[in-house]
Amino acid sequence: MARRRRTQKVDEAYEFEVYPPGTLSLHDVNLTIRVKGDEDYEEELKRRQREVFGLQVKMFQAGQRAIFVFEGWDAAGKGGCIKRLTGEMDPRGYKVWPIGPPDEESRRHHYLWRFWNRLPGRGEVAVFDRSWYGRVLVERVERIATKAEWKRAYDEINAFERTLTSDGVQVRKFFLHIDRKTQLERFKARETDRFKSYKIGPDDWRNRRRWKDYAAAIDDMLDRTHRPDAPWVLVSANDKHHARLEVLRVCADVMASTLEGSR
């Protein structure tokens, strides 16, 4: 049963709020959800893509902005969801930012520095394929960041996102959740597919061995950064079709509510 949501003040200086710990957890995700019928899926996909396109045009005309952040397990389907989300969008009104390890220039600055010039302008949608949450996920688990650094990062990220939402930017953050069995099947499928083999490497297998460490980091991230103005959306992604439709549905709802609020 979903926990009743309440808000609490956690930092008077930045005045951001978070939901109570335990409001969202990986354990609450129903990974058995499936979309039945390929034809029904394709029809629903096209319908939702057309809906998103229409809303994107209106967002552009109204000068409204949105950020959609995608995090998730390796092979959870982030790229596929982003591809379907943007499939019918006008390329003049959105940007997709694939985020990898920081380059030498970025390492000379605060870890949030490299994201500032990737934020959306008026009328734009920015999509992040991984994001600033790497600080409290991979950098925490792999000990790239010190304990003091990643613990401090929760408040830094909340303040960063609060700066955006206070300026009128809509922020939604997706975490695509799959189970270990599904991940293993997808890893093996990638290794044997010459068109997808580039997607799998030693880092993926190493991360898989640390599944429990990552799961703990993810639940901590949800506890500390799930906020009313920039909430997380946990997506059941064992079934790729369901995940794609769910992402499109949520993004359409966000864009529609943004336009409604601007009237």
Structure notes:
- By secondary structure, the protein is an alpha/beta fold.
- It has one domain (8-261): 3-Layer(aba) Sandwich (Rossmann fold).
- A hairpin with a 4-residue loop joins strand 1 (8-11) and strand 2 (16-18).
- The two termini are 36 Å apart.
- It is globular and about 50 Å long.
- The longest helix is centred in the first third of the chain and has 25 residues, at 38-62.
- It has helices at residues 38-62, 78-86, 104-107, 113-116, 138-141, 147-166, 180-191, 202-209, 211-225, 240-261, and strands at residues 8-11, 16-18, 66-72, 94-98, 125-129, 170-177, 232-236.
**Second-tier CATH architecture:** 3-Layer(aba) Sandwich
Helix content: 40-55%
C-alpha Rg, in Å? 18 Å
Number of domains: 1
H/E order of the elements? EEHEHEHHEHHEHHHEH
Query: What spatial form do the alpha-carbon principal axes imply?
Result: globular
- Strand fraction band? 5-15%
Compute the number of helices: 10
Number of strands: 7
For the report, how would you describe the main beta sheet? 5 strands, parallel
The CATH class label is Alpha Beta
Strand ordering within the main sheet: 4-5-3-6-7
Q: Calculate the terminal CA-CA distance, rounded to whole Å.
A: 36 Å
Low-confidence runs (pLDDT<50, min 5 residues)? 1-8
Average pLDDT figure: 93
